[in-house]
Known about the structure:
The structure holds 2 protein chains of 2 kinds. By secondary structure, chain A is of the alpha+beta class. Helix content of chain A is 43%, strand content 12%.
Amino acid sequence: MSEVANTIFSPELAARFDHLVTIYPMRRSALVPMLLYAQDEVGYVSDAVVTEIAQRIGLLELDVRNVLSYYSMLRTKPAGKYNVQVCTNISCMLRGGYEILDHCKAKLGIGHKEVTKDGVFSLEEVECIGACCWAPAMQVNYDFHDNLTTIKVDEIIETYRAGQGKDVK
Amino acid sequence: MPTLVSHPDEVKVISRRFGQGAANIDKYIELDGYKAVQQAIAEGPEWIINTMKASGLRGRGGAGFPTGLKWSFVPKQSEKPKYVLVNGDESEPGTCKDHVIFREDPHAVIEGTMIAGLAIGSKLGFIYLRGEYRYLLKIVEKAVADAYARGFLGKNIFGTGVDFDIITQSGAGAYEVGEESALMESLEGKRGVPRIKPPFPAVVGLYGGPTVINNAETIANAPHILLMGGEAYAKLGTERNGGTRLFGISGHVERPGVYELPMGYSLRKAIYEVAGGIKDGKKLKAVVPGGASCPVLTADEIDVGLDFDQMAKAGTMLGSGGIVVLDDTVSIVEFALRTIAFYQHESCGWCIPCREGTDWIKKTLTRVYQGGGNKKDVDNVQYLAENMMGRTFCPLGDAAAMPTLGFVKKFRKEFEDYIEGHKAGTPIITVQQLVGAGH
């Protein structure tokens, strides 16, 4: 049993966190993955997440926020159920990354770091996602989609809209 | 994803198991998996390090430091525990080779980590993957769990009395964390900013203990090298550049992909033969030869061998092996802006020359790109970049300055023509996403 009462996480995630803080030579090493996994479940790193993770690791909330603000994948506001991240870095740019981004903006009716009104999609322009040889590429949550065309993007978005895409968990 | 490609000129060492389902432990064992580590246990640390030294393997993360030598720097006696840290934070634009390794051959990374651990006398290794590679992390986590289940990891591995553990770790999005000391900070649960050196990680690293940090490709090479012998591996490459290497060829080529080529292989052949030449029959304009931080080569500078020394002689770098090919429709002004926008976004802000320099270069190039530049801007950009070089804790400042200098020196006329063209009333190209991500 954890010394911290679980208030916001699922029992599975709480158990995972209980284990995570024990495996490292230093508890604090669990911080970055914990923030990421908490975000996957809650949707973003809320104040409650910060408080509980700080307690679980034995850190000040300030320490947690200091780390939280550094990493680009961590967010303090909710994203859509499906977070569409389009890469426009050099390899993707050369093969139409900006066209893909523009297409997503038009299709979803939102801009960078915005969420659709129904909360289903959010959109982000991101730096290199390590799919350079299969460019242009995007990620929806943690699912890679590569060799994109605007037609392929439409199909992918419709798949998610129909609830057939993989969720974060 | 990723789509595997191949070409007859490839020499498959590290990619030998790609496409064969080697993420499955049984398949991996069938393909000589976990033989090298057992041999390493039997032969001992000195044999491992000597074999690695003989192989001429140089770090595949970009710096090209000899791996055997790096391992030999770790003190034999240490009061603090020693660690192995595998850098899988692959974030250099143009680079996606580790992506393929983690997906196709995760056990090679695990076995390599164990070998490095044996070489330096460590009992704990970390495999750190960038946060975006979550699906790959799951593959690696599964591979680690399978290895534990077989008794290959944990206490008394292979019944030899040796203990070794591996922890898989996820990042959360920061290019800077690819730098070794920033990686250690991140793994310790802090902001991923660089540490001052010396002391070097081999002496004072993770948790203050001696630490070997290697790129995932470097580590994954170790089992192959032990199996084939250091000299045999060295012979595949050129003098002082042993073996083969994974090259990711992307951009305007017909067949982009990750190919394993011998060190010293011709860059021209890599582009025109291996990757099928320039897409849609267009003309080559420029090549960024080893990831975004490497100075650009023009179309007539590509008769150069792909190894650390020949690339240095050509005024650029082999870097992480990410070859980005540009056809003649690309505006270098736009490409340079997109490149610096990345470094500006990813600068951790720790050192002023990098934080301010990348920002000012981006601002200046943005104005130029929008049509409001003047010729002095090219000099200003060069001045800013020159003053970043060598003035930061970590190489990110250099990594931003070097390509910038390459662009303005080799394509100065294009910058000047661009500026003049707009002054003369040429219509400004409309680009909605002017300055890259994160705004």
